[in-house]
């Protein structure tokens, strides 16, 4: 090959294919939504779908184009104010509880904004971007995948406020009569083990550094806690017994009148659940979802067990080779565990609360600049969830992944797996 020609053609961008597929998936998720669906904000914790679509686009403008594309002018000077989430270093922003006030720009205009930024990123990558720019595009893609899951959980919360219980997508026929297998304990010896991201492939800063930690001998349930088991907790008075609850959790039970998981509904003695497929009969064999840390902890106490630590969870997942799903799965409701030996449902059903607070690993250091605000500043008052859910995009989950929420939050696809000391 002529060496001059070889130098003239930029190397293919590793981030380009990821960027194209992630951006297309967001458009796919938005397809069933009208402008009103995408604009309303159902609570301060949730954001309008339109905001998710615009904020993830703003992230590429602020973190990539304005830094690495010479001469790039922002699509609109007002969009940084509207669609900055929490980056203090990138200027003032619309208060989070008032994101639903942004009735304009319309959903169509946001899709035009997305197309504009898509074209600019693709031009940048096709021309041969620096490794730093490639790395930031990759981060932007993983950031957008997080918002894809939030878009679904926030739409579910919004649609659950509607007395008509609309379906985000019409349900696929559900398997009937499938019972959950009996739960079994899997034992682990413990000792000094290594956890954390090993540097191969993408990982968020908070997943590392990989480090040693001490685990005492323990047992982990081979499957998730089911709706039937949770119903037994409800019927045994679990929500009325203060001895099962953390003090803050008990205060929340009383303040909010909690008596069952979010989205459960009792009608004429039958239990239903609001889902992305609309109101559906509660599947007793499926994993319980939409419970807070406080509820998960109380259930574990009632069951004579406890929640695993995040180190126990990760050690179990890696030592038994549990792999996240890599192919698209269009399911919008959790499904029962298969009747097979070994560790089941570690990924792809519901996130699993652990008893570990979200704190920095030993030798963790925040990145310089705005990107350092991504995770580090949230390391207070939140608990780690492990695994992934049915709403997690394919390719986004891994054993070292640390999701985190405050202990009273229950609108995510959050459930639990029991552990006990050995
Ligand atoms: Fe974000």
UniProtKB/TrEMBL annotation:
Q: Which organism is it from?
A: Methylopila turkensis
Show where the DinB-like domain sits.
Answer: 20-149
Keywords noted in UniProt:
Iron, Oxidoreductase, Signal
Domain of life here?
Answer: Bacteria
NCBIfam families, per this entry? egtB_TIGR03440 (TIGR03440)
User: In what residue span(s) does the Sulfatase-modifying factor enzyme-like domain sit?
Assistant: 183-318, 339-419
User: Any one Gene Ontology biological process term?
Assistant: ergothioneine biosynthetic process
Q: Which residues form the signal peptide?
A: 1-26
Identify this protein by name: Ergothioneine biosynthesis protein EgtB
Biological or metabolic pathway of the protein? Amino-acid biosynthesis; ergothioneine biosynthesis
